[in-house]
Amino acid sequence: MLPLPSTTLPDWETLKRTVYSDDGSLRDIYVLDTTREDWNRWIAFVNARYPVRWEAEGHNGGAPATAINADFIARRWDAGREQLTVLAAVFLGNVQANCHFFVETNIEQDLAPGEIRTPADHEQVLAYLIDLSTALSKEVILTEESAEEAVWFRVNGTCVEYISAPYI
Question: Its domain of life (predicted)?
Fold first, then answer.
């Protein structure tokens, strides 16, 4: 994990009340405009650095695996099997980020803000965003659920931008 950059972020109470408000919705992590190579790098990155639970219909008898199989995902996309159930849970300390492999063009994950209960949990999430941006050499954003335009954090390498009012 990279050290956290010296950015000006709000205090924990503000983050808990805004970004991590447990309002019943999720928060999304996006890497936009991705290629299959980006997906392969993401899969290698999370398999190597984080605990993972991966489940895919038609793979391993449906039993969970501790690593994501990139070839299986590629074959699924090639076959147009969008409806297969595929879920990867990436564990960021106490926080679980879920990836469903919806489309090749965006890496999208979600997390439950109620799981981010402490400043240490927030630091785990932020470190993941920084590590992910660095590993892929792409911008990573944390947004409101299903709202790419409602950005809370914009991460480019070790540069972290907090947006206090993400709504358009």
Answer: Bacteria
